[in-house]
């Protein structure tokens, strides 16, 4: 099985793939042949690192059930092998997204000149708006 990235790989025995009948148009063949693929991957029982598991649970993806099982249905292609490869590719993309770490944000402070420019523009704008008011005699 291909690796998700250079450091992460999903063992083949952790992925359960079953063949099912595809939905939709396809003539008589769709009723006879089980060409679609149903992939199940249990996150909690997997050998993924704990931080990747936590990020997977944190994703708001409809393919991840409440029990922590990734369910992918692939029926894009007419052959079972292509659908199997497609399902595995989609699983790798999902795990790849969860394996990326976000850059830590370094808080910055605005400079004195930018603060004074901002305040000057605010007072100028306020002065302009005050001139729009009614003039009383």
Notes on the protein architecture:
The protein is α+β, with helices and mostly antiparallel strands and 137 residues long. The chain has helices at 29-32, 50-58, 80-99, 112-130; strands spanning 15-20, 36-42, 69-74. It has a 3-stranded antiparallel beta sheet, with helices on one face. α2 (50-58) packs across α3. The model has no long low-confidence stretch (mean pLDDT 83).
Strand order of the largest sheet: 1-2-3
CATH architecture of the domain at 12-99: 2-Layer Sandwich
H-E order:
EHEHEHH
Low-confidence stretches: none
End-to-end Cα distance = 86 Å
Number of helices: 4
CATH class label of the domain at 12-99: Alpha Beta
Reported by name, the CATH topology of the domain at 12-99 is Double Stranded RNA Binding Domain
Helix content: 25-40%
| Largest sheet data | 3 strands, antiparallel
Round the Cα radius of gyration to an integer and report it. Answer: 27 Å
Shape: elongated
**Strand-pairing-aware structural class:** alpha+beta
Mean pLDDT: 83
Strand percentage: 5-15%
Question: Quick one: how many beta strands?
Answer: 3
């Amino acid at each position: 099985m291909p690796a998700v990235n250079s450091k992460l790989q999903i063992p083949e025995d952790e992925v359960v793939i079953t063949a099912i009948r595809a939905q939709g148009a396809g003539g008589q063949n769709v009723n006879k042949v089980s060409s679609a693929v149903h992939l199940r991957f249990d996150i909690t029982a997997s050998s993924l690192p704990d931080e990747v598991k936590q990020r997977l649970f944190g994703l708001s993806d409809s393919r991840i059930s409440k029990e922590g099982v990734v369910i992918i249905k692939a029926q894009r292609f007419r052959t079972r092998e292509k659908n199997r490869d497609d399902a595995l590719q989609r699983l790798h993309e999902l795990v790849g997204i969860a394996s990326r770490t976000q850059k830590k944000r370094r808080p910055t402070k605005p400079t004195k000149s930018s603060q004074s420019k901002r305040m000057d523009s605010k007072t100028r704008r306020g002065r302009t708006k005050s001139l729009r008011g009614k003039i009383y005699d």
